[in-house]
Amino acid sequence: MNLLIASSAVSVSPLSCAGRQACRIAGLYVVIFWIALAVLLIVGTFIVYAAFRFRRRDEREPVQIHGNTRLEVAWTVVPLVIVVVIFTLTFTNMTFIRNGPPPEMSVTVVGRQFTWEYIYAGGKVRSFDALRIPTGTVVRINVTSIDVLHSFWVPRLAGQVYAIPGRTNPGWLEADKPGSYFGECNEFCGLGHYTMQATVIALTPTDFQRWYQAQLARA
Ligand SMILES: [Cu+2]
């Protein structure tokens, strides 16, 4: 188990997503990335081509052309189509990414300089070392802070949620497979900011129940 945690803790790339929310975000990112790359390559090629093809060779004034309707329509319509596609993709995924499916359990996540505290529903079970969640379960997180701004971010599982003093921001997590998922406070919050890790340990539902009941008994 420790070996499993050690080897899986290495990856923090949102692209190697391990839960529905992160995968939805990664899916959007990949589509937009390829569109942007295509635009970069096409525009870049034209710029380089034009720089060489039409560079100044002598003192003669080149032919002066005023406008080209077909070209202008094209470079207005193509970006418009791209923007509409990106807007539609984002808009139709936004609600799911933000709110997710109905939560099956909830945890309050409290940021403080320089650690996270996880308070499970009912308030009897708290933990500081890691947020433990059962796999395949939609976990609502209510994120807040008791001192300064922090941001709760576990890239392989979900987008970041700001931890703001006096306010509770909702978010949600879901892990497909058991493992340890590394996260960090993503808002500079003081000298100890770099130490403010946010580890999520996903356990099978049975293991989670065992852990939870043990904590409950201790409490
Ligand atoms: Cu912080």
Total number of β-strand segments?
11
* Morphology: elongated
> What is the alpha-carbon Rg in Å?
24 Å
Q: How far is it from the N-terminal to the C-terminal residue, by CA?
A: 25 Å
Helical coverage, percent range: 25-40%
Bound molecules: copper (II) ion
- Sequence of secondary-structure elements: HHHEEEEEEEEEEEH
**Lateral strand order in the biggest sheet:** 3-2-1-5-8
Mean pLDDT value: 92
Strand content: 15-25%
Question: What about the largest sheet?
Answer: 5 strands, mixed
Provide the low-confidence segments as ranges.
Answer: none
Task: Figure out the total of helices.
Answer: 4
SSE class: alpha+beta
Description:
This protein is 39% helix and 22% strand. It contains 4 helices and 11 strands, in the order H-H-H-E-E-E-E-E-E-E-E-E-E-E-H. The strands form 3 sheets. Strands 3-2-1-5-8 form a 5-stranded mixed β-sheet, with no helix packed on it. A 3-stranded mixed β-sheet has the order 4-11-9. The longest helix is centred in the first third of the chain and has 34 residues, at 20-53. The chain starts with a helix and ends with a helix. Copper (II) ion is lined by residues 111, 150, 185, 187, 189, 193, 196. Copper (II) ion (CU) binds at residues 111, 150, 185, 187, 189, 193, 196.
